[in-house]
Structures are given as C-alpha cells and as structure tokens.
Amino acid sequence: MMARINMYLLATTALAALLLLTTPAHSQASKGVYKQKSTYSGFPSLVWPKLYTISFEKAKDELGEYDKPIFSDAVRAMQGKVVTLPGYMMPFENGIKGNHFMLSSLPINACFFCGVGGPETVVEVFALKPMTYTEKPIEVKGKLMLNERNPDQMIYILENAEVLGEIGF
Description:
Layout: H1 2-22, E1 25-28, E2 33-37, H2 48-51, E3 54-61, E4 64-71, H3 73-76, E5 82-91, E6 97-104, E7 122-132, E8 138-146, E9 156-166
Parallel strand pairs: 7-9
Antiparallel strand pairs: 1-2, 2-3, 3-4, 5-6, 5-8, 6-7, 8-9
C-alpha cells in the first residue's frame, strides 16, 4: 500500500513539474509590454503555436486598466480566415449543451482559468449548432476574429464555427 502511495506522489509531482515546464509563462519586456513565452505547443496544430505569439500592454478605458493584446504579424494574417483548432471544450453557464463555449488547447485542469495557461491558450467559440459537452478533445472549424478592444470577450473568437467531432488518440 505504501509503495502505491509513493508511486502516486511521484507521478503527481512529475506531472506538476511537466506542466510548469511546458506552459506559456509571462515575462515583462521593456516599456510595459508583456510578452508571452511559447514553450508549450499543445496538440499537433499549425494554428495554436501562432496564436501563442502575442504580447500585452497596459491600456485604460472608462472602466479602468486592462491588458490590451498586441497581435503578431502571423496572428494578424489569420484575421477573418477559416481555421481548424483541436482542443478541449469548456462550456459556459448551463454546461450540458450550447453553441457558445470556450475551446482550450490545454485540458480543463490546466486551462487558462485554472492559472496555468494564458488567454492565448483559449478561443471563444460561437458554433452554428449546439454541441453537447464532452471531456474528450474535439476539433472545431470557424472564422477566426481577433479582439483587441472588448475586455469582456476573449482575445480570439471563432465565429460561424462547426464542431468537426471528437479526436481519438
């Protein structure tokens, strides 16, 4: 029994260390611009690594201060283009079925809202048809929109999205 507990502790510690080493970390650059380090590549995807290339600067509006995204040229080139992203569904509100949800490149226990990833690791999805929540990874295809002005929405938004299905490993 003690050997099993020790093995569990070792595996948990190794997983925690791996998550810390492989997730985007924030580093401060000059003139108040915060640049993301992109050491985690998520699922094999040509899109997620590009979405990780983003910086932030402090900005103010009538409600106060917020982090304004500064999109790289690679990200700006994808504005309005149809992209396919693999990831994990994170539902809003009711949680069982809906056409408005988050797609995270990280599993739910390592997502942006749990403190491990940054806002560049999630996309706000507006699907054409409602999708039933699943813990399994899925693929979603839609028109990528960049949001640099509305702090109440995610910085990446997929409009007119279609859930292509679950990804099997």
